[in-house]
Each structure stands twice: as C-alpha cells, then as structure tokens.
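2024-03-11 09:14:02 INFO worker-7 job=invfold-0412 stage=load source=structure_tokens
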C-alpha cells in the first residue's frame, strides 16, 4: 500500500455494530471513551438475556453438559467447569433496561438491541418482546451457547422472527464458541450454534439477520472451515443476511477467507468488535486490523467499517 493510500484509509471512521455494556466492566461512558480513542462514531449496544441459575435448576441440561465435558476429556473437573459457566452467565447478563438507559443518555452515540431467551416459556418470550418494544430498542440478540437452545428445535424462534419482522427489527445471532468452558467444542450448544441450523428460519422471513463472527467464533480460519462456507451459502441465498466481523478481524489477513467474502460481496459485511468481551483485543485493534490489511481496497474497508452500517441503520447516517 502506498503512503497516500495509507493516509486515506487512516481517515476512515467506523460504526461498531457489536459491543456489550457489561456491568462492572464497560459503562456507557467507558465505551464512549474507547470509541473516541478508536475513531468509532456510533455503536450498537447488545443486551444479553441469560439465566445464571439454569445450570443448577435444570438437571437434564446439567447432565448433558457434564457428558459433553467428558466427551472432550476424562481428565477434567466438571463441577469446576460448571462453576465457570455460571460465572460467565452472571457476568454477561445484561438487561434490556440497562441498554435502553444508556441509549437514552447518549442517543447520538448508541443504538440498542434487546435480548430474549428462547429457552424460556412462550409467555416469557411474549412478555420480553413487548418489553423490548416498549423500551424502543431496535433489534434482538440471540446466543444459543449461553441461552442453551437448539435453533432447529426451538418453537419460540418462529414467534421471535415474526415479531421482529412486524417491528422492522434486526436479529443478531451468535455462531461458534464462547469464552471459558464454552470454548470446548464437544458442547452440544456450541455445535447447535452452527449456521446450518438457521436456514429454515432465515428463508421464511424478510427480517434482517446478522450472523456474528463471520458465522463462527473460534471456528473461522481453522483449516477447512464449513462454518464459514455454510454462512456464506446462507447469505448468498438470502439478501436479508449480513455477517459481522466481531472477534474474527484476523480473518482479513487470510487470502482464502477474503477471497470467499469478496465473492459474496463486501456490501454484506459489517464491522463489529465484541468490545469488551474478547480478551487480548480491543475496538481500536479490531478497526486497525481492517484498516491495515493489504488484502482489501480502501473502498472495501470503508464499506465494512462504515458505509454498510449507515445503509442498514439510517440512524447512523452522517447525512441524517
């Protein structure tokens, strides 16, 4: 890249479509400080509807998880891993009210997505969707790993997608692993987060759907990757599907992956950092990986970092 090209790319600001206001770790003010440091003008805040008590209350789920641990290795302490899971659920639990409060305080910087746990009762899901609507949030975050649901079996997803379509909401879906014990690939709910289980839901809706982590956190870039290939097939068949870069910006230094993404079209890729969830990285680092890669043109970088999000979410447009 020439010096002139580098200077042009350095002037590109970004919109981060995937950040978490986690209590005790990231407040609205601290996130804005990180955004200002990183050249990020706006961001989507994500709620997480998690149940820290489910591992002790649901014996069937608990036994399934222990079996999955032992399928990975007999030389483990399942109680210790289950405690680790519970701690992650406690730390990650982020209410719809909190997200709405931060967005209300900083309306020029944040757009909020609520979250509803599909593994709960139908009545609970209906009530939570109404809550998200009343709080004027603009989307829904779903995460099979931490909400312990199977996309190909869960009956509440039809209700969620139908509600989202009526409200013109966006649904953001986690794919792949999660930190700590959720990195273990034999866990059934990690396997269930594979994008292949979402075809029937996506094909029956006009709702905009974003698949996080290019279709597979912890999976993208791992040799022959059917997670990435599957989400690209899903996106190529459904124009309402987008992919975000959260946690996997390293993929933009991989010639093979960039080539595959280019065939889909970079108008379908949006920037996300997953701040502050992923250890060892940051919003600034994630943005700089995309800015500094030699595998993208400046136009492609601009599309990923800003232009696509402005098109998808008019609230972020610099011309509003």
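2024-03-11 09:14:09 INFO worker-7 stage=emit residues=320
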């Amino acid at each position: 890249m020439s010096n002139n090209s580098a200077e042009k790319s350095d002037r590109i600001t970004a919109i981060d479509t995937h950040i978490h206001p986690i209590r005790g770790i990231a407040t609205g003010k601290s996130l804005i400080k990180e955004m200002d440091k990183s050249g990020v003008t706006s961001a989507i805040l994500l709620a997480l509807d998690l149940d820290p008590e489910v591992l002790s209350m649901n014996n069937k789920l608990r036994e399934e998880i222990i079996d999955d641990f032992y399928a990975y290795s007999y030389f483990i302490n399942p109680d210790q891993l289950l405690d680790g899971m519970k701690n992650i659920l406690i730390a990650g639990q982020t209410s719809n009210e909190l997200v709405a409060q931060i967005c209300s305080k900083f309306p020029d910087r944040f757009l909020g997505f609520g979250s509803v746990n599909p593994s709960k009762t139908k009545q609970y899901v209906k009530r939570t969707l109404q809550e998200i609507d009343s709080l004027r949030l603009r989307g829904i975050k779903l995460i099979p790993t931490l909400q312990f649901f199977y996309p190909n079996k869960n009956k509440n997803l039809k209700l969620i997608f139908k509600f989202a379509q009526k409200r013109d909401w966006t649904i953001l879906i986690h794919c792949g692993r999660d930190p700590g014990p959720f990195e273990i690939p034999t866990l059934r709910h990690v396997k269930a987060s594979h994008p292949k289980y979402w075809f029937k839901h996506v094909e029956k809706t006009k709702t905009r759907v974003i698949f996080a982590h290019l279709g597979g956190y912890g999976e993208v870039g791992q040799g022959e990757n059917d997670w990435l290939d599957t989400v690209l097939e899903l996106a190529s068949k459904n124009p309402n599907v987008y992919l975000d870069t959260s946690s996997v910006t390293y993929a933009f230094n991989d010639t093979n992956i960039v080539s595959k993404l280019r065939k889909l079209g970079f108008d379908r890729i949006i920037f996300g950092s997953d701040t502050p969830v992923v250890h060892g990285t940051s919003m600034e680092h994630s943005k700089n990986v995309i800015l500094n890669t030699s595998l993208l043109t400046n136009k492609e970088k601009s599309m990923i970092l800003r232009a696509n999000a402005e098109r998808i979410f008019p609230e972020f447009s610099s011309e509003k």
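2024-03-11 09:14:09 INFO worker-7 stage=report msg="The first helix runs from residue 3 to 10."
2024-03-11 09:14:10 INFO worker-7 job finished
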